[in-house]
Each structure stands twice: as structure tokens, then as C-alpha cells.
Design goal:
2 copies of one chain form a homodimer. Chain A is an alpha/beta fold. Chain A has a domain of 267 residues: Rossmann fold, CATH 3.40.50.1100. Helices cover 42% and strands 16% of the residues of chain A. Chain A is built from 18 helices and 15 strands. In chain A, strand 12 and strand 13 form a beta hairpin. The interface between A and B is large, with 48 and 50 residues.
Chain lengths: 454, 454
């Protein structure tokens, strides 16, 4: 037990650039289309809601993009994040596999989200923007943007899915502590919100609705921009620091992963860990088996269609080609709110389409069981989203035991569960239920996909 | 802004021993007395509730005590903890002072408490103990012992002050997630609890009552021991790793603290940071100005008496000489539950008696203001307890600005506020009130101090 379990990087070894998988894709991605014309969008189309630097990153195929100094300065508050070997979990599972995890819960808001919130706030501030509007589901993203906004002196307004707004007052309190204003969505602040409230005054809201509200606010005010916490290319770019650090740390550990695992909602924590490894593989390096884990209740990669679709409910966003359950699909309620999105990041979707990654889905009860097993062994209670990655890491380790092979597994522990104890209480009290989407609803949502670019 | 802000130690530089201030006190501490006989207690008196190794540490005057390998292994899950320079806070305050803080919120339960929970679980397990009983107020200690118990496979039962049991279901959920059983105290599980419930069925409980219950459970069962999260000498010993690490990290930073600050409830996080520095000073090294910060509502160091007193309400514990408000004193309700204890650690009390440390008290509203100012600048929302240290660090930095002197301040940020967002919400909504104890009640409690050893 005297072996090292934690692999820290010194600050001087922290990556100074992000990695862009678009540089190494063997075939290029399908372009985003303008929602009105159905033609590929231009930078000018995006200028109403994004600053120039982020638009440039969104379309860039450059392999390495420098991280600005002021962003590095703030990253240093919690980065490099630790990479740990889960020796006690290995022992509990009696597996010959080695299990490593990269731990992003050490950030100020407890997840990987500040990795992109900080550069987004920085680039917007540099472009003279005074205010950022955004949406949040479980609250991880909203609190991260609130944190980043407070550091750069930029105002933040958050549209929080109403059901979470009511269920998660403490996430809201954290956003307010960082100085953000928070509205329950659908709200009376926007046309999109008012239109939905007129039809269903008791709407619980959804990420798609909240995105519509936030985009509308940004589009209407030249000094307000929009910020998104996942899905977009520039968001995945910023998250690549996770994998770049992990590669160096695995070197220090003297190991190389055979299997990489991440949970997927919009796809950003997953992409952050695996894209630098996929890039290395595409450039002729070591092959890795990559597994994306999504909730059975919202299975965009395993049950969705790879097609052009809108990112939001009111159809204000560009059309992007992605694995989607349809923008009108409403997933059943479950605890991993951060994975409750109808679409998958276009870059992750493209990687899946090219056969570079596998995808599986898991039910929440088995994920919480895995989270508790992990927590008791390693002392960290994972966020409900992250328990999906833990579940499959454990499944793979058990498979190794059964097959008698000692593979090296690396998964992304994207956040801690301190703000999700209600879910653990429900599990403890036997109140948690597995959830599956309605097949008919899914079929209808898929039938309603826009026909453009098909 | 390109200066380093975070000072990490590599694992190989992590201290391998704890530091014991008893070795360097110029005059020895008064001995603990047996509650029945009023005579100094013996090791045998303590054997019913503590394992031999902890009894030995409790009375040791050895300067350095080795940290066992299995404890170091678990410490590595989060230690060495970071030391940070609060440059953004310095800038916000326009102070010439340098402000550093040691951050203990990176532990699995979010505070310094696991530093002693882990060795206590280890030594008890080694002594063949199957179960540990303890009390908890705000829940930081209970969840830390539950965590440590789960790692060593030792059962944990927690008596949680009833008012916190009701107000903080998520802390309770964390303890249960780690496999502990949690009772609201006063409970029907013990004679002490039943006696109090008979007189006041609606008793909100107190730490003193919960300690009585936990000690009773341990005393009655030979395979159950008691664990305390603060106050005792061996607890302060285990926390010294905070200051030992900080000394190395301040060296790396090329700085030396002029002022050391910690919040004090039972005294353990404060002692953990400052005792290694006080020892160096007592051995002829650099002099430091040490400030203990306590809540105005429970001011044992600033308004208590230095006298022999009981640690609990039912008078089951030994009598120890400490700064005390009287074991019958019930502090008014306020948010920093971890600072709501009638007594102060005997070692901290002795240091205060010898003039080695200063003590001040602060009201909670000004502490939350300081916590938010810190959070907005540095991205970490402090636990309500830790805001007391932040408040005085800011006060001292402002004093530096006014006097035009650039002192170096180091404070202990003992935990994050993720489980205390209700307090931040109350502050945000203007519901927080300053609280002061009742002078008459304090006078009565002090008049009731036992006359032994006076």
C-alpha cells in the first residue's frame, strides 16, 4: 500500500495550449447551417452572440491553440488537477486491471466546467462585452460561469431549468454568491419564455428552452453575449486540458491507458479527456479503446440519429450535424441533470460516426451503486453524472477479472456530488427508480427532425 | 498576474511525522483530572474509550511522532494540501500586505477533519476495535470519521446535534453514504439522551449532550471506542501536518509569515496551522503574531475563564484545564456550528495563558461579508467557520494599507462552504442576524464551574 496513488503535475508542466481534434480528423465535419437559409453559417452570423476569438476557435482546424496568460493564471487556482490510481477500488473488485481517474472535482465549483467558463469570460471581456447570458440545468455550468464572471468583472445572467431551480436552491445560492442573477426558465424575461408560459404555465422547463431564452437575451443586446457550457467545438477545445494533463501524468505513472471512459451529456468532459488520446492515435500513435457512457433515459449516441438538428427548442441556434433525439424530445426526469440534453457535441458525434469511439448507456440505480462503491473505497462521492463513468470503469475492471487480463483503465471523474446529496439520500431510502424514455415520443421527435442538409 | 499563486508540495516532501507543541512549552500543562476523584487521570482510566496509541499520544511530550505508513497512504488522497497566495484579494483590498492561505477544503469531506479521523480510525482498528462512536455538530467531523471508518472497515455511529440533524440532511446523507449510522441527539439510545428527553422532549441538543451520548456508548461496550474531532491533545497533534506543510510551502514561496490566523471552535484547525510555527519560535526561531478568531456568540478565549471544567454536559469526561464558558453554557444559534463549543482545547488555552497567542471575536454578518469578498476574488466560498479567519485576515490587510506596511499574512482556510449554502442564502436574503450570548447565562455557567483543581 505504499505505492504512489496521486500524480500531480507541477505548475510549470501545466499545458500552455489546448488541443484541437479537428486538425486530425481523417474527414472533415459537416458545417453548421444557418437556421433561416439552410446555408453554411459565416462568422458574421455568429458575431451577434460570440466574440471574435471564440468564433475563430469554433471553426479552426489548427492543432494547437495557445491558452492566454490571464486564463492560465486562473487555471492555476486548481490546475493541474490530480490524476489518481484507485488502488482501494481495484482491491475491492479483486481485479488485475489498473484503474486510474482524472479528478476534475477540485475546481472552485466542483466540476470540469470552469475549464471553459474562464476562457469564455476572458475572451468576452477582452472584446468589450459587459454581460453574458447562459442556461443551466443541474447548475454546474451556471455556477462556473458565475465564478468566471466574478473574476473578470463581467455580469452573468443565468436561465436555470425551473425544475432544477426549485430542486437545487443551493446551486442557485452559489451562483448568487458569485454575483450572478438567476431566473427560473421558462421565465417572463424573454419572448421564448413568455410563449411557452402562455401555453403551459406550469412548464418544468428544459435545457432546450433555457438555451432559447439565453440566446434571445444575447441576440437583442450588442453588449451582451451568449455562453454555452458544452456541445460547441470551442468548449471541447478548452476541455482538452484535461487529457493533455492526463497524458503527462500517466507518463509519470509509467502507464498507458488501454481503455478511456467518460460520461456524456453534451460531451465536453468526455471529449476533454479522450480527444488528445484520439489525436495521438490518428497521427499513428497508440490505439485506445474509448467508451462514452450516457444515461439510458437520454441516449443520444446509442439511440439517436446522426442528423442536422437545432440545439434549442425555439430553433434560434444554428443547425448542427450531431447524434440527436430530436430537439422536441423531453427526457424523463433523473438525477444526472447534466446529461439531460437531446443532442451530442458535433465533434463527439463525428468521432462516433468515424468509428473512433464506442457508446453504451446505463440506468441510474446501477450508476449510484457504482458511485457508492467508489466513494467508500476512494473517499470521493461522485456527481450523479460522473457515476456513469464510474459504472463502466467498474464493469470493465470486472470483465478484466473474469478474463484474467490486466488492462489499464482511465476514466474522467468530472465532478463531486456535494450538491447532489438529495440523490444519494433518495438512493439510500430506496426512492430512486430507473428511467427509460418513451419509444413513441422518441419516434415522434426523430420524425420531426428538420430536412435541411439531409 | 503571471506570478505563481499556488504552492504544491510533491508527495515525497509530505511530512512523515506530526509535531507536538508539548515538547516546547516553557511550562507544562495542568494535568487532566478524574471526574470522580479529582486526582490526575491515568492511562488506565482512558483505556475504556481510547486505544493505547492515542492515550500515549495524549500524554506525550515527544517533539516528533511518526505518522504510520497506512495513514500516510490515505493522506495522499488529498495531501499535501495547496498553499495559495490570494493575489486577487490583495488587489481588491489595495493592500501592501501579502495574503497567503492554506486550503484544507480539498479533503474528501471538505475540511481539515480527516487529518485526525484517519489516524484515529487506524489506531482503533489496529487495537481490534470494531466500532467508533462520536458526536457531530455541523457534520464536518461526523462525515470525516464516517469516511475514515469506511476506508478501514470500522463501524461508525454518530450522535448529531438534533438542530443540525434537521437543518443539514445532506451532511447526514454523506455520513450514511460512507456507511455510518446517524442518530439525532439527544436520542433514546443512551441513558444521557433519555434523561434529557424526559425533562425536555423538544431539546435542540448541543455538542456537550452529544458527547455524553457518544462517550456512554463507548464506555459500555469493550469493542466500541470513542473518537473526538477536536479539543484533545492527540487531535491537535494530528492536525500539525497543516502547519508542517505550510512551513515548507512558504519556503518555496520565498516568504515567511508575520501574522498567522485561524478560527477557533475546539481549536484543532487553528493549532494545526500555528503550533509548528510557535514551536520554532519557542526554540529561538522567528517570532510570529498569532491570532485566534472566535465567534462573538461563543467566545471561550476572549470571555471564558481559564479553569478546570468538563468537556460534556453529563460530566462523563475528565476535567481539563481550559478556557471555558462553563459546561452548562448554551450558545445562541448561529451558522458556524463547528465553533459552537463551550470550551477551548487545553493546549490552545495553555498557549493563550502563556501569552503566545492573541484572541479576538467577530460577529457572523461581518464574517459572511468577508467570505463573499474572498469568494468573489479567489473562487472559493469558505465554510462559515472559516469566514472568521478570512474576516481577520482582511482586517489585518486593511490595517497594513492604513499603516503603509507590507506584512505577510497566512491564514487557515479550514473548509469550503458547499454544505452551508443555506447560510449564504440567508445572508443574500438579509435574514442573517448577529448573535450575542446572554451575559446573565454566562455568569451563571461560570459560577457553576467545578471547584476541583482551582
Amino acid at each position: 500500500m505504499s505505492d504512489q496513488v496521486k500524480y500531480l503535475l507541477s505548475e510549470k508542466d501545466m499545458p500552455t495550449h489546448w488541443y484541437n481534434l479537428a486538425a486530425d480528423f481523417p474527414t472533415p465535419m459537416a458545417p453548421p447551417l444557418h437556421p433561416g437559409t439552410g446555408k453554411p453559417i459565416t462568422g458574421a452570423d455568429l458575431a451577434a452572440i460570440f466574440p471574435p476569438a471564440l468564433i475563430e476557435q469554433e471553426v479552426s482546424t489548427k492543432r494547437e491553440i495557445d491558452i492566454p496568460g490571464p486564463v492560465l493564471d486562473i487555471y492555476r487556482l486548481w490546475r493541474p488537477s490530480p490524476l489518481m490510481r484507485a488502488r482501494r477500488l481495484e482491491k475491492a473488485l479483486q481485479t488485475p486491471a489498473k484503474i486510474y481517474f482524472k479528478y476534475e472535482g477540485v475546481s472552485p465549483t466542483g466540476s470540469h466546467k470552469p475549464n471553459t467558463a474562464v476562457p469564455q469570460a476572458y475572451y468576452n471581456k477582452s472584446a468589450g462585452i459587459h454581460k453574458l447570458s447562459t442556461e443551466t440545468g443541474a447548475g454546474q455550468w451556471g455556477s462556473s460561469l458565475a465564478f468566471a464572471g466574478s473574476l473578470f468583472g463581467i455580469e452573468v445572467v443565468v436561465f436555470m431549468v425551473r425544475v432544477s431551480f426549485n430542486q437545487k436552491p443551493y446551486r442557485r445560492a452559489m451562483m448568487e454568491a458569485f454575483g450572478a442573477s438567476v431566473h427560473a426558465s421558462p421565465s417572463k424575461e424573454t419572448d421564448s419564455g413568455r410563449a411557452i408560459l402562455a401555453n403551459s404555465p406550469d412548464s418544468p422547463g428544459s435545457l432546450g428552452i433555457a438555451i432559447s431564452e439565453a440566446v434571445e437575451v444575447a441576440a437583442k443586446d450588442p453588449r451582451t453575449n451568449y455562453a454555452l457550457g458544452s456541445v460547441l467545438n470551442h468548449v471541447l477545445l478548452h476541455q482538452s486540458i484535461i487529457g493533455l494533463e492526463a497524458m503527462k501524468q500517466m507518463e509519470h505513472a509509467g502507464d498507458e491507458p488501454d481503455i478511456l471512459i467518460g460520461c456524456t451529456g453534451g460531451g465536453s468532459n468526455f471529449a476533454g479527456l479522450v480527444f488528445p488520446y484520439l489525436g495521438r492515435q490518428l497521427r499513428g500513435g497508440r490505439k485506445v479503446h474509448v467508451i462514452a457512457v450516457e444515461p439510458t433515459a437520454c441516449p443520444s449516441l446509442t439511440r439517436g440519429k446522426f442528423a442536422y438538428d437545432f440545439g434549442d427548442t425555439a430553433h434560434l441556434t444554428p443547425l448542427v450535424k450531431m447524434h440527436t433525439l430530436g430537439s422536441t424530445f423531453v427526457p424523463p426526469g433523473f438525477h444526472a441533470g447534466g446529461l439531460r440534453y437531446h443532442g451530442m457535441a458535433p465533434m463527439v458525434s463525428h468521432a462516433a460516426h468515424l468509428g473512433l469511439i464506442d457508446a453504451v448507456n446505463r440506468q441510474q440505480i446501477s450508476c449510484f451503486e457504482a458511485g457508492l462503491l467508489f466513494g467508500k473505497a476512494e473517499g470521493i462521492l461522485p456527481a450523479p453524472e460522473a457515476t456513469h463513468a464510474v459504472r463502466v470503469a467498474i464493469d470493465e475492471a470486472i470483465k478484466c477479472r473474469e478474463e484474467g487480463v490486466g488492462k489499464t483503465i482511465l476514466f474522467n471523474l468530472s465532478g463531486h456530488g456535494h450538491f447532489d446529496m438529495q440523490a444519494y439520500m433518495d438512493f439510500h431510502d430506496g426512492k430512486l427508480q430507473d428511467r427509460t424514455y418513451d419509444e413513441k415520443e422518441l419516434a415522434m421527435a426523430l420524425a420531426g427532425l428538420p430536412s435541411v442538409g439531409a
